[in-house]
Design a protein that fits this description.
Helix 4 packs antiparallel against helix 5. This protein is an alpha/beta fold. It is 37% helix and 20% strand. It has 14 helices and twelve strands. It comes from Carpinus fangiana.
Length: 340
């Protein structure tokens, strides 16, 4: 029995060839994954208007090899061994998704019912802890700890406490000073606007800090916001260098738990077999558990070790490119994203 798949292919800035076709991409995949006979597209289309196209959507089916059906995990689990070389050879970054059993007569749109985002280096371009560290004059110390934590070299909870301790004595007014400095990632506003219009609920789960998470959440009209709380000395109105006692700590496992809790609040039963319910997007090692708990988990511009472990990786110039994975064309994104 054949299984249907969809590839969203993003052309790299400096591809090996401007003449790569859907047929050639599938030929490279067939060779790399030892799939016989050679895969052929059941349908394909350009999702953008550039030439040559920057984004292709390719549908195909395969019965697998040696009597064993090919599964989505077969493409993902062999990323180190096969997918990197496939992408290098065809000049595209490839996102594999399972497609419906029968091909739709119209291009299928698959927006999530719930979309969950990390904040630092995902919805915004900076790491908030690094901005706070600059005020404390300990940037070099905090940046080193942050990088090791995001790469999975340090336990996130322990590294968070280490970094927070270095912030002792900073006036709490720093949060108001930092708000204008936060830069949204390219495409974030468009992505959130479109998700809202198609009825998706949204959540921000940040290992950063609540005052700035609420600020970004407000700018993007996000429904659920969770982040860490820093303790403040009421007498001096300065940070104590500790986390607020009794407040939740948004570490990797807590992000996964929150995804499940929010999904339940929104009436989504993730124990039932159904695609496209929850999207989870992040860039750090502490985002991996929620990515794997989601229907579709995407690492965007992630650290190398995270890209290798994530369900899906995306390294394009705009966060709005996530909408291509849901079947929206450039024209549809522009239309939905521009309407108030």
């Amino acid at each position: 029995m054949s299984t249907n798949f969809k590839i969203t292919a993003f052309r790299r800035p400096d591809p090996v060839s401007d003449k790569t076709t859907p047929e050639l991409i599938l030929e490279v995949i067939s060779t790399a994954y030892s799939i016989s006979p050679t895969l052929v597209p059941s349908s394909s289309r350009a999702l953008d208007t550039t030439f040559p196209s920057r984004v292709l959507e390719i549908h195909f089916s395969t019965a697998g090899t040696n009597g064993a059906p090919f599964k989505l995990a077969d493409f993902r689990d062999r990323a180190d061994e096969v997918l990197d070389s496939v992408e290098d050879n065809c000049g595209f970054d490839l996102v594999f998704q399972q497609a419906p059993d029968s091909a739709p007569t119209e291009p299928l749109k698959t927006p999530p019912k719930l979309a969950i985002f990390d904040m630092d280096s995902t919805l915004i371009q900076q790491e908030v802890i690094d901005l706070l560290a600059a005020h404390a004059g300990v940037s070099h110390l905090v940046s080193e700890i942050t990088a090791r934590a995001m790469n999975g070299e340090l336990d996130f909870y322990a590294s968070l406490r280490e970094r927070v301790a270095l912030l002792k004595g900073i006036p709490v007014s720093v949060f108001e000073e930092l708000k204008p400095q936060l830069l949204l990632t390219t495409g974030a506003e468009t992505l959130l606007r479109v998700l809202k219009k198609v009825g998706a609920k949204t959540a921000l789960l940040s290992g950063g800090f609540l005052p700035l998470a609420r600020h970004i959440g407000g700018r993007l009209s996000i429904d659920h916001i969770h982040a860490n709380s820093l303790a403040v000395d009421p007498a001096t109105q300065t940070l104590t260098g500790e986390l607020e006692e009794g407040a939740e700590i948004v570490h990797a496992e807590r992000k996964r738990e929150l995804l499940l809790e929010i999904a339940a609040q929104e009436g989504l039963d993730l124990t039932k077999e159904s695609d496209y319910k929850v999207l989870a997007v992040g860039d750090g090692a502490n985002d991996l558990p929620m990515m794997w708990a989601a229907s579709l988990g995407v690492a965007v511009h992630a650290k190398p070790v995270v890209q290798k472990k994530a369900p899906v990786r995306l390294n394009t110039g705009s966060l709005a490119d996530l909408l291509y994975l849901m079947g929206y064309s450039e024209a549809e994104i522009e239309q939905l994203g521009s309407q108030p």
